[in-house]
Write a structure and sequence with these properties.
The structure is a homodimer of 348-residue chains.
Chain A: H1 27-34, H2 38-46, H3 53-66, H4 72-78, E1 84-89, H5 96-110, E2 114-119, H6 124-135, E3 141-145, H7 151-160, E4 163-167, E5 177-180, H8 183-196, E6 202-206, H9 213-228, E7 235-238, H10 245-258, E8 264-267, H11 270-282, E9 292-294, H12 300-304, E10 311-313, H13 316-328, E11 334-337, E12 341-343
Parallel strand pairs in A: 1-2, 1-3, 3-4, 4-5, 5-11, 6-7, 6-8, 8-9
Antiparallel strand pairs in A: 10-12
The structure holds a DNA duplex (30 and 30 nucleotides).
DNA sequence: GTCCGTATTGGCAGCGCTGCCAATACGGTG
DNA sequence: CACCGTATTGGCAGCGCTGCCAATACGGAC
């Protein structure tokens, strides 16, 4: 009666069967098989509370025999907190966010947590929607990108009482935990570096800054620092598309068409800068003799170009890992500035 | 009595309060607030079953007033299936997997599913562990990469009865749903293309093929197709590290040091090929006059190089989206070969 | 006004697990 | 041998929601 058959016409009124006609194995099955109580099985499986060595062996044998897989859905509902962390990133196209994920998932796994991810496409309304969706899983914490969120998102976050870590930006007030670096300062450092090297006719090539707020902060920092030295941006080109190698290549081409005597180009990130470098290679523009290039992010690819790209290396993986760890360990609200590193390279 | 206070010393024996001293709002609260039954609230929130317009308005008003967020953990436990799909990928470093994720999460979101991701670092034992971990969330389906899994993984997958989609490879028997393309055929096509162009002293630069089984299949296809034309690989260089621009650059350097008269280099993917291209640029090696380069994946960056990279474009985003859709809609087991496209480029 | 079919609605038993608490077993002690 | 403190163990009430089913309301048709 217990082991029935795979009879598809089974009409018993209580037993739920899966598609293959098997009843899912539950903790109660394991308890029966091991001839111990349910709570004993639960304790053994979580190594929590006390039990004898003999019992542990019995339970583990039963688990193996039945091929039991604990149901964390039930476990989470019964206990208070889940072992889930929600991660909200704007994009998967730009390698910086997978980097962030990489750091976070590695740290999370170590702490026994699982990550649920959601992508916003740099849209704050979509961010609000995915935050709501993630909150319905009652996560132990949420990792979001940046400090800018619309009021609805803030309200939901606050109402949920869930711990939040905001990443990759420290220029502004945070909600709870903040891990990142100053984009504004990065922009400023870039400007000072170029000016220090003697460049004077400096242009900017960026992407859609209304959506990418961190890029906008770098731009602002760059422009302001330039102004402080008495210079102004010679010109700028904003490509409407998201940042990409292609956007950088086309953006630089457009900018040079307007301002042929530019002596340096500041890109909103390394992908764009790589595109600019390709444009220079293709058109015989000497780098940095005729035109200097400066990026942002410190991607590997920049380091391996024939002339290493001048850029700013950001600790993205570390930011993800740090945030994950703080969230898992229940750290108090804090701001962690991981800083950045200016890489002189050879293109500026 | 109902609205109590935020009294931290509340000693009532039943009410669970969160860190902020608030009792989480449940569906029962909403029902009380809207003066309807719990099941009515449930029906309205899921737009499932019938209810009057008046009731919908009442419920929605109550939800808004209380700021209620449904608890999907409880919902999933009570109903049969979850709206979670587990995604297992080998790495987040190589952009192809974020691409896959991108396709999958976009399609999943459209169907009202959420994704839980896990990374294996190309390690089959870790794959087994993360599959077990994902299964404990009782996902509606699992997306895994490739067709090779160790016996433990296969056993768990089979025992769980969960639908599985295997991605990016069609060279071999699948477990259930398979979406991808033939890596072997891609390798063959690459070899035939290079031979057709007149190259004869062809070398291979790859990474760790014991871990990346799909790269190994391309390599095998390439080598076999070469042999069929009466040629043999002039030499090959296997870098021990994972694939990267750096590995490609160093690998080509090492190979050319051994075989200076190579006339074409086949790389295990575009990242490696880009590294090789950079080596050529840095050392004044004319491409393709002196050395032809061929990659795999069809990354954007290859298209934008001064000379577009000869490569094979793979539909990674589409594969993720297709798999997600098939899983969500409960498609029967099937193999979907999305094919690939050879891009002639200018480097070969 | 009566009767019946359909549209709405509420009650309540679980889903599988954990947390609490009482029950029992074990190992000395006096 | 009775007694006590500690180590193990089992029972069972929920966690918040959904699914089932019975109860009620509504809207004509007769």
């Amino acid at each position: 009666m217990d082991e029935g058959g795979n009879d598809a016409f089974e009409t018993g009124d209580a037993e739920p069967f899966d598609m293959a006609g098997r009843r899912p194995i539950t903790l109660a099955d394991v308890a029966r098989e091991a001839r111990v109580g349910e709570s004993t099985v639960s304790r053994v499986l979580r190594s929590h509370g006390s039990f004898s060595e003999k019992t542990r062996a019995r339970v583990e044998a039963a688990v193996a025999r039945l091929g039991y897989v604990p149901n964390r859905i039930a476990g989470t509902l019964a206990s208070t907190g889940s072992r889930l962390i929600g991660i909200v990133i704007p994009s998967l196209t730009n390698i910086v966010f997978p980097d962030l994920l990489r750091g976070a998932t590695a740290a999370l796994e170590q702490e026994g947590f699982q990550s649920v991810i959601a992508v916003t496409d740099y849209d704050q309304d979509r961010e609000e929607a995915v935050v709501g969706s993630l909150l319905s899983w009652r996560p132990a914490g949420l990792i979001v990108t940046g400090l800018e969120h619309n009021p609805g998102t803030r309200r939901r976050l606050a109402a949920s009482g869930v711990r939040v870590a905001e990443l990759l930006d420290t220029d502004g007030p945070g909600l709870d935990i903040v891990v990142g670096y100053s984009n504004r300062a990065a922009g400023e450092a870039s400007a000072r570096h170029l000016v220090g090297r003697g460049y004077r006719r400096i242009g900017y090539i960026g992407h859609d800054l209304t959506k990418d707020r961190r890029a906008a902060k770098r731009y602002a920092g760059f422009r302001d620092a330039l102004r402080e030295t008495g210079l102004a941006l010679a010109d700028e080109e904003r490509v409407a598309s998201p940042s990409s190698v292609e956007a950088g290549r086309q953006g630089l081409a457009a900018l040079l068409a307007r301002v042929p005597d530019l002596d340096a180009a500041y890109f909103s990130n390394d992908d764009m800068a790589l595109g600019g470098y390709f444009h220079c290679l293709a058109h015989g523009i000497a780098v940095p003799g005729r035109l200097a290039l400066f990026g942002y992010n410190g991607l590997d690819v920049g380091r391996l170009m024939p002339q290493p790209l001048a850029t700013i290396r950001t600790p993205r993986v570390e930011a993800g890992a740090t945030a994950a760890r703080l969230l898992c360990t229940g750290s108090p609200a804090t701001v962690v500035d991981l800083g950045f590193e200016l890489i002189e390279g050879a293109t500026a």
